[in-house]
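Hello Y.,

Per our agreement to keep a running log of every chain we model this quarter, I'm adding this entry. I've kept the format consistent with earlier entries: sequence first, then predicted structure.
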Amino acid sequence: MRAHLLGIEGMRVEDLQTLLENSATMLEVSERVIKKVPTLRGRTVINLFMEPSTRTRTSFELAGKRLSADVVNISESASSTKKGESLLDTAITLESMSPDILVVRHSASGAPHLLAKYLSSTCVVNAGDGLHEHPSQALLDCLTLMRHFGEIPRGKTVAIVGDVLHSRVARSNILALSLLGNRVRLVGPPTLVPASLGHPRCFGHRVSIHHSLREGIEGADVVMCLRLQRERMSRFYIPSLEEYSRHYGVSERLLRQHAPDAVVLHPGPMNRGVEIDSDVADGARSLVTLQVGSGLAVRMAILVTLAATKGTVEGGAV
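Predicted structure for the entry above:
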């Protein structure tokens, strides 16, 4: 494991598997009456979120606190970037206060990579950068499937449905699921799932493109619904939300017909009635709530793993 977690791209399968196994051991902490261990006592984690977030920011904050780290949260509105300071100058200023880990979410693709290049003593975690990657989300999705299937997911068929073009969640999941030996189908309209994404040079030979929802989910083990990233769309990619929902909205009726044994994931937040119906989101096949719990465990494992690269982590705590 490197001193930063910037993305799934370039990660070794051994490191991915180790992170998943370590994350599984963290699940038990949240089941305790006293949900706190001293593993990162004396360490400092700064969450620098330059985009809105509920799940990722909250789970990174809880992860640090349950590991007994000192946690500081900074949003864009509370940072000096609102006064014209660059992101790099902000990060260098924060590093001068000797934090151990800087968790960064930013609208610019590559922002965490830039900070990792210039910060000399702080581990950087990518909590989502532009249209690029969201590695901790892919890890928590894999952990969720691991919990459901009873083992690290391998040899499964996973249909990722929706706005793949603008989704950093999709990119990290494609990389992680393929690395573990799963087949990935990208499903959606040509404007949101361009054929180029299916070229072997893009994501490898385990990825295929499908513009028919029925064909794309046929016999799938897992269906992952993606939110329409309307805030990232600069042009008209779909005629209307109603038209999109009619052709690509995932319903229980459709799943019973074409993927009766499939479980369903959604990274959130959900647009109910657009990419996913409530009878699916709240139904027996939904793993959405399980994903949230998995996210906390994954982020705890990430913090522990990176802190270990900077010195001794208290043993016997987890």
